[in-house]
Design a protein that fits this description.
Elements (H helix, E strand, L loop, with lengths): L1 E6 L2 E4 L4 E9 L1 E12 L6 E6 L5 E3 L7 E6 L4 E6 L8 E11 L4 E6 L3 E6 L1
Parallel strand pairs: 2-11
Antiparallel strand pairs: 1-3, 3-8, 4-5, 4-9, 5-6, 7-8, 9-10, 9-11
Amino acid sequence: QVQLVESGGGLVQAGGSLRLSCTASGSIFSINGMGWYRQAPGKQRELVAAVTSGGTTNYADSVKGRFTISRDNSKNTVYLQMNSLKAEDTAIYYCNVEGYRGLPPVRFSSWGQGTQVTVSS
């Protein structure tokens, strides 16, 4: 199994910054995509940002220019730097990691437990 541990959420005023981290552990053979999703009350979970193993990034239009996703492959960790936060960024943020685990390698897709981000206006 592959476990994900998230950290970095919290309460911040509008215009402030937060940095989320998500570290994967377990019988990991390789990691492909890593991403962050969020779910606000009464809304569906949506993709915030993602990064491929080659470093290609993808962002939701609503966070472009404000959020930056990055990864440290040596630590199996993905980060989300969130700047210029707005009240509408308030949500539970989940990380997702996809890749291969075990031997022989089999595909996996794991989710973090979620971390609350609250932006006060």
